[in-house]
C-alpha cells in the first residue's frame, strides 16, 4: 500500500529544505522508517517519485548505510559496540549476554508479547564514543560504561516500558520517534541531559592547564605551548607541517592529482 498523502507532503517538505531536493534523500529515508518501521518498497517508490529519480537510485542509498533497515525493527533498537576497544573492555561479553537474555541473534527482534515493548539487537563497529567503553546505544542515544549486568537491566526496563534516559542525552523515545527526529522533525528533547561528559573533556582541561591554544583559523599562526613546554613530538609535528606547507606552496593550482581521475583524463 502506498504511503499516506501526509507522508508525501512531509517528504516534499524535506526535499524543499535543500537547494537540490535530492540532497534530502537521507532524512527522507529516516521519515520512511518512522512511518513504516523499516525501508519498504513503497517507501522507496515514494522517495523516488518525490525526487524524480529511479527506485534503483533510492535503493542504492538505502542499502549502503547500516542505519537503514530492510527488516522490521523493535520499539527499541539496541546497539552494542564490539569494535576493538569496547570488545576488550566488555562489549563482546555484553553482546553475548544480551543474545542469551533476549533469545535473539544479531539483527533480530524479540517477538511481540502482551504488555511488553520489543527490542532489536545489533552489534555496532565503534560508536565514536570510545572514552566511555564499553558503549551501547538505544535508538542511537549513548549508554556509557556498560556491563553485562547493567545491559540486561536496561533491556528489561525498556521492554517493561519504564522511562529510561541516555547517560549523556535525552529520555529515550521509541525507534520510530527517533527516526522522525533524524528526518528533521524535532521532539524538543535535544537539550535534555549533560551532552559532553567528563571523559570527553579531559583533553580540554589539560590544554587549559598548560595554556595550549589552537592554530588561528586563517592558518597564519600556529598554536604555541606555554612556558616553553615543547616536546620532541610537537617539534617533529611542526617540522612535518612546515614541509607540507612548502609542498603546498610549490604545487601549482592546475596540478593534476592521481586521486582525481577525471582531471587526469583532461590532462592527456
Ligand atoms: S570502540 Fe566502541 S565506541 Fe569506539
Helix/strand class? alpha+beta
Distance between the termini: 53 Å
> Mean of residue pLDDT?
85
In CATH, what is the homologous superfamily of the largest domain? Glutaredoxin
Largest sheet: 5 strands, mixed
Q: List the quaternary state of the chains.
A: single chain
* The CATH C-level class name of the largest domain: Alpha Beta
**Residues in helix, %:** 40-55%
Strand order, sheet with most strands = 2-3-1-4-5
Q: Secondary-structure element sequence?
A: HHHHEHEEEEHHHHH
- Unreliable stretches, pLDDT < 50, 5 or more residues? 222-237, 243-268
Distinct bound molecules: FE2/S2 (inorganic) cluster
Provide the domain count: 3
Q: Which value, in Å, is the CA radius of gyration?
A: 24 Å
The number of helical elements comes to 10
**Percentage beta strand:** 5-15%
Which of globular, elongated, flat, extended, rod-shaped describes the shape? Answer: globular
Q: Please tally the β strands and state the result.
A: 5
CATH architecture of the largest domain: 3-Layer(aba) Sandwich
Q: Could you name the CATH topology of the largest domain? A: Glutaredoxin
